[in-house]
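Below is the data:
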Amino acid sequence: MLFLILSVCIISGLISFRNQYDSYPISDGFLDLSEENMEGKVIRLNGIWRFYEGTFEDNGPLPYGSLEVPGTWRGKVINGKKMDQHDIGVYELRLRVPSPGDYCMKLNYISSAYELYINDTKILENGRTGTDKMTEIPSWTPQFIYFHADHKDIVIKLKVSNFHCNNGGIVLPLYFGRQAPLFRFHLLNLVKNIGFIGILTGMACYLYVFNWCLNKKAQSVYLWIFCVSVLVASSIIDGESLVSVLSFLTINAVLKIEYVSFMVQITAIQFFLWSMYPELGRTHPVRFLIVMDFFYTAILLCLPVMPVLYENVVFIPVLFINALNYFLLIAKAFRLKKPNAGPIFLGYCTLIASCILQIVDIQYNIDIKYLGDINFYYFGVLFFLLCQGYVLAVNVEDTYRQSELAHEMEIASLQAQISPHFLFNILHNIYSLMDTNGKMAKKLLMCLSDFLRVKYRFDYRTYTLYQLREELDLVNAYVQLENVRMNDALKLVIDAPDELLSNDILPLTLQPLVENSIKHGYDSGELNIMVTIRQAGDRLVISVEDDGRGIRPEVLESISRIDAGKSGVGLNNINYRLKICFGSRLEIQSLWLKGTKISFQIPKRG
């Protein structure tokens, strides 16, 4: 719960830190900033740029069109020609700044390669532009560029080629400004992205530890796989975090990892839902999904990057079919009032809504106040994981309660087994005396009544423990009951400090040991029985000792091999209850014809 609360606080904090930038209308590739104070501003270069299609040259009377930045050029019409995803072109933006000086630009990923020119001077080449897939070398690396402007008018040109990605052109925002504010902006943006990825990493670690603690419980394993695959995908989407760690990856490898990570997320959600509601997953659509996802993922792994299977016209329908089926399954579980269906349904709907918003943002650039800087995919995933983390916590709590209930019922059952065992012995004795000594039988019945009055002050169906004082009262009543039958041949001594008598003990622990002393130790004459209670550190040592016949060595060896895992009556029962309640067991010492001592330890507590 602390981890989940901390995650919510961090997410709320990251929302509050919005990227501070200004946007001005760019019309026909021109932006006038001459009247602006640039010292503390970051300008987002969103708007309509000039675009020269199908060429790397922009000199002379070449016809130009216009493209919105950020945005893909795929499907756009330039000078009557509809552009394909794979093409080349030149973006041009003319800026008028307040004064000459040092300026900066922040360029995120531009698919697939580009060259940056400032006032016809080549500043940067990212990858290598080309006119086909063979001559182009794509690059994923974002750039932070410093340059000096000799006069107020700045012409920015980006020569872009795309033959390795589905969407060509400037698909992410570009930023412009002075060095200090733009660097602060860049740093804040990087910290935010790393913060989101850090939360995902923390959740992955939490789920791994959770899984380890629960001995590989299926639900936490599937959520852990989902979390790790999201971590990989978010590092790719962010770009800056990925390049900082794995700069050697090619763009082809990155794209393949991205697509496969999304399929792993789908599969992880699939198995998580089926592990939660297995009775709802035994249908033909489910089997179809398994086969479809398996073959699609295998083809993504084996084929090169650009075949049709990497196109949105294939990938998006695969995602949609899976999402729809999972939605129907969760909705059915919710309608049938299955356990935890509400949080799962809420988290899943939020995840789907966030993915749709993220796709819309990539395609159409959502630039709404308080929403423009939010990565919808991140927040949907985090909310989904928080909901499922709640479900796991509830499952653990339910499992714990059921375990505790089963434990209490087992103890009560074992204690209930001892009661009739003893009672049958006494009733058999009374029956035997009725024909030979009616007066003794009546006295025995009265003693039995007193014994039962003491014993049933405790209800084993409601409580597991009672006080030592009550157990000793039971022992006294029992010995009195036996003395009626045995003509006061039993001498009971109880050596126990009063301050220890309020300590908790399992019912019917001492009485069966005293009963064994009488049953197996008494021969003739008198039998002395001593019950001793002593404190040893934070534990109590309790012993029942007699001077009776003792136990033969071979019998003692057989008793020492008592299987504490078996239930029953007598020593087996006491041993088993001591083990599962206190982690203790009986210790038996006996010498033939000299007596027996049985002792055990319990925690000292109220």
